[in-house]
## 1
Amino acid sequence: MAHRSALVPVAPKLSSRQEQLLEALRRAGRELSGQDLHARLRASATPMGLATVYRHLRQLQQWGRVRCRHLPSGEALFAPTECDEHHLTCVDCGQTHRLEHCPVHALELSGEELRGYLPLFHTLEFYGLCPDCQRRQRRTASEAVEAAGQSASLPSA
Ligand SMILES: [Zn+2]
Ligand SMILES: [Zn+2]
């Protein structure tokens, strides 16, 4: 039996289109949506349709070569599996920051927890309110209190 690294799933050889997609994702250096990827490939010598892009992305995900995460807006972002990145996202304005390091890099599941699964990648997202949105919400809240106070002090007719 051929030697096989413990972390590389048995995947069929990628087609040239799939290689092209993976290469475009690597070159981007950041996560891309299917639309972004489609737009980047449109400029290349061998463009492909949006449906084809999604079909290959799904296949690459199934083979453990591409990872995917969803934004609060529902948009799916893709990156090569080896890219171990995590984000802090504002639930109000959607502003997102990449964390400097992976907080769970050393975390491993026990053999029992893995139930025979081959681990490929993990996702971990932090959500909160950015400073701007906190300020705006505080302002809105204090304006509401002020408005309530004014209407309470109005002389009754
Ligand atoms: Zn915000
Ligand atoms: Zn991580």
## 2
Amino acid sequence: MIPIFMLAASFALVHARPGSTLAHHASTFAGATTAAIFPPVGATITAADTFFLGASEVGFPGPTLTGDEPNAIETAPSIAKMDNMYPLVEPTIKGTSGKAFNPLEHVGQLSPWQSVESFGLPKTSPVIPKGCSLQQVHLLHRHGARYPTADSATASFAGKVRDTATSGGFSGSGVLSFLNTWTYKLGAEILTPFGRSQLFNLGVGFRVKYGELLDDLVDLPVFRTTSEARMLDSALHFAAGFFGVQDYQNQYHQLIMIENDGQNNTLSPYDNCDNANNDVFFFGSAQANKWSQIYLAHTLKRLSPLLKGFNLTISDLVAMQQLCAYETVSLGFSEFCGVFTEDEWKGFEYFIDLGFWYGNGPGNPASSAQGIGYVQELVSRLTKTPITTFNSAVNSTIVTNPVLFPLNQSIFVDASHDSVMATIFVAMNFTSLAANGPLPTDHIPRNQTYFVSHIAPFATNLVGQVLSCPAFEEPTHIRWLLNDAALPLTGIKGCKFNLDGLCDLKTFIAGMQQRIEEVDFTFDCFGNYTIPVPDNIVDGQFPKSLRK
Ligand SMILES: *[C@@H]1O[C@H](CO)[C@@H](O)[C@H](O)[C@H]1NC(C)=O
Ligand SMILES: *[C@@H]1O[C@H](CO)[C@@H](O)[C@H](O)[C@H]1NC(C)=O
Ligand SMILES: *[C@@H]1O[C@H](CO)[C@@H](O)[C@H](O)[C@H]1NC(C)=O
Ligand SMILES: *[C@@H]1O[C@H](CO)[C@@H](O)[C@H](O)[C@H]1NC(C)=O
Ligand SMILES: *[C@@H]1O[C@H](CO)[C@@H](O)[C@H](O)[C@H]1NC(C)=O
Ligand SMILES: *[C@@H]1O[C@H](CO)[C@@H](O)[C@H](O)[C@H]1NC(C)=O
Ligand SMILES: *[C@@H]1O[C@H](CO)[C@@H](O)[C@H](O)[C@H]1NC(C)=O
């Protein structure tokens, strides 16, 4: 592999390694962007090589007896939890209480998903409750771990390191001495190898838990994703895990819905919602930035002396915290993780929580509008009734075609994004997630429960179990698990408190239909309004009382 150093000037870099240069002065290549190319230029593609025959040409596959579908969600006494991040080297720092603290569990949407302990229903588990049987499952999942987005603060930070290294020069010492020889090895937007494994594992886990539902299908199922590279890659890795690498292309249909400006797509609804792309949306980062000035003020004083010749800012520190997450999920390890203390990580975690709350969560007036299209599709699937009113991100071309949008599957799988899933949770009135808002921007409240690392981490997964209780033919109940923890549905009109998170199916559907009535997509997405001050919104809608 030949590293390509994307630099205008030609420095002698190729053999430089961290540690091989002067310890206290930045090398001229500090901050440079590096990228590899594989396969090697000119390599023969294996498939076209007559030396390497395919499996069907070689033959002799050995016995190939298949077994029965697994159904662990009904037959096992408990489920296996997602509780590790293999093969990442999990950064652990000494916490304030003396206990080990893993920053990667506190980096919001940049955390790899882990099973959540509880969203307020600690007595239940994902296993189908006694006396019920499983009829149908709805899975909505996020893509896996990715590189930073194209416009990321991490790339800007690397640029600043490089500019400083090549102009006046700088010298890092102490916990920042690694910056002297640090280079930026991250690409943009696409899945990382670890991200691919997350989706493959999600697919395997889903087969082990829900495989028996395949017996109810009379045709191949349709799974949906969007056209972005990481979205398709995620969907395919899920399918490869669920069906097997040699079989997946023949065992289901993959619908790829275009994700692009102006498109109607319920899995990327911001593409047809003005207020998801202007100051109404940017309010999230504005609120988060108020908090970063506070939680990082002391950090700036602590770290500035360790970086002589470099004008360290609060934004740089935020980028460095992001780099801990991005480098670890991309490269397996990051020096940036050890730079910050437990309190600084908790500050960063809240920074992300604020950004989501006010940008895509309960506190943003365009959230419910963005999420409501998926709710319309969900109601259509639950009632087996085609959608006829088009007043949201729903794409009529897709949902009126039963080939593209079948209503009678036992398994539904949709892939989407963190920000979108956050809006869908608001549209579905999972109000327990919003119960402790609105969130202050000057301190972390004691009762804070809106943790993005639990709600929208990499490969976050929402599972709707449609059940019949008592076990019988017709479905009678539904419940929703987010990252293996049942969500209380008591915010949905008519749903009574239930220890397992169950709601009567007809009541749930009526609640969703009422949500569809409540949400004014056109006004909330396209209305010319400013966010009220203070922003006390907790239902993701512009307050009707403030409309002119
Ligand atoms: C759904 O039902 C239709 C008509 O009853 C049938 O043709 C189709 O194969 C079914 N699809 C699935 C995935 O079961
Ligand atoms: C609806 O989806 C179809 C199929 O992907 C696409 O060609 C069309 O442009 C979409 N329409 C809108 C308005 O987004
Ligand atoms: C340091 O950066 C800040 C923020 O970008 C800027 O306002 C300030 O002028 C810079 N100071 C120096 C000495 O470059
Ligand atoms: C796209 O969405 C808009 C707004 O809801 C709707 O008026 C239009 O009919 C939709 N177009 C398609 C093709 O779905
Ligand atoms: C959460 O704490 C804040 C103060 O930090 C308080 O104003 C609010 O009422 C509390 N909310 C709940 C639901 O306890
Ligand atoms: C959704 O939650 C809000 C409170 O945030 C409540 O006023 C409304 O009635 C709920 N709607 C439904 C249909 O559950
Ligand atoms: C929105 O309203 C403000 C003031 O009411 C006006 O200045 C602005 O031009 C309007 N923007 C759009 C896009 O209509």
